[in-house]
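Ticket #4471: structure output looks truncated?

Reporter: J.K.
Steps to reproduce: submitted the chain below (317 residues) through the standard prediction queue, then opened the result file.
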Amino acid sequence: MANNPVRSEWYVIVNPNAGNGKGKKDWERISGIFSRDNIRTHSRFTEKKGHATELTREALVSGFRKIISVGGDGTMNEIVNGIFTQNACPSTDVVIGMIPVGTGNDWGRMFGIPLVYEGAVKIIRDNKTMPHDVGTITYYSSEGQQKRYFMNIAGLGFEAVVVQKTNKQKDKGRSSQAVYLYNLLSSLISYKRPVINITIDGKTITTKAFSVNVGNGRYCGGGMRQTPDAVPDDGLLDITVIKDMGRIEVIKALKILYDGTILSHPKIDGYRSTNLKVTCETALYSEADGESLGHTPVEFGIIPGGVNVIYGTRITQ
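Returned output as attached by the reporter:
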């Protein structure tokens, strides 16, 4: 553990590219609101993919214990991965706040964090904190087995294909809910539903599957509710398995992806557990908090109350 004295100010990590450049464009305004509200900050801009993880580690070694993410769900994901890949302090000593400037802002939506910056800063000033579970996902890539931490929702199958396409367009400066929806609909044409093995609480299910979503949070993809009853501090992962649905069935069911009734569909199953394993004869790719990852075999786990967060509205069962 580091011996540096704990610092009282907030360490602010700004993703200048979040929200098609809103992070950079609006930072002066956000910084001015912090100053007006007498919130002391030390800020850094990210410069590349994964940089928020590095900055978080550096901040914790330097004695910071309060971190604000100015970005989207991906920036928050990188910060959480920084917290869980350092040894300067226990993860439970850290508090995370968010100023949402991303495209989807699904994590902030669950906690009632406004997109209006004055409102988001007020929530940080009010300083209501709660312990938040942290999901884990292990997967494989060309470098062997890898591990990633996530706050909101991770997925396998179709969702990961859509995320991968969307992230490629983000890298080219094209990012919006319309882009995500276009990728969702266009990917339906070519996506094949593989046979997968899902093991939950020691019981294995073999089925053709369209997608598997695993969540601490309720929203993904800019407001879709694929794990609509998830609670971020119950110590459990909510699991939604969309089975062998054809493209026409999926299009007809788009409404229930958004209105919270997805688990009422006869071809969609819901589970709760602390552990999930997925295998597939072909490589089935994964994502977490909108970040594209590697492929099966994949295993999910959970760290109950792994980190503290600032919230506006607290979700209860």
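Triage note (M.O.): checked the attachment and the full token line is present. Residues 134-304 form a domain with the Tumour Suppressor Smad4 fold (CATH 2.60.200.40).
Status: closed, working as intended.
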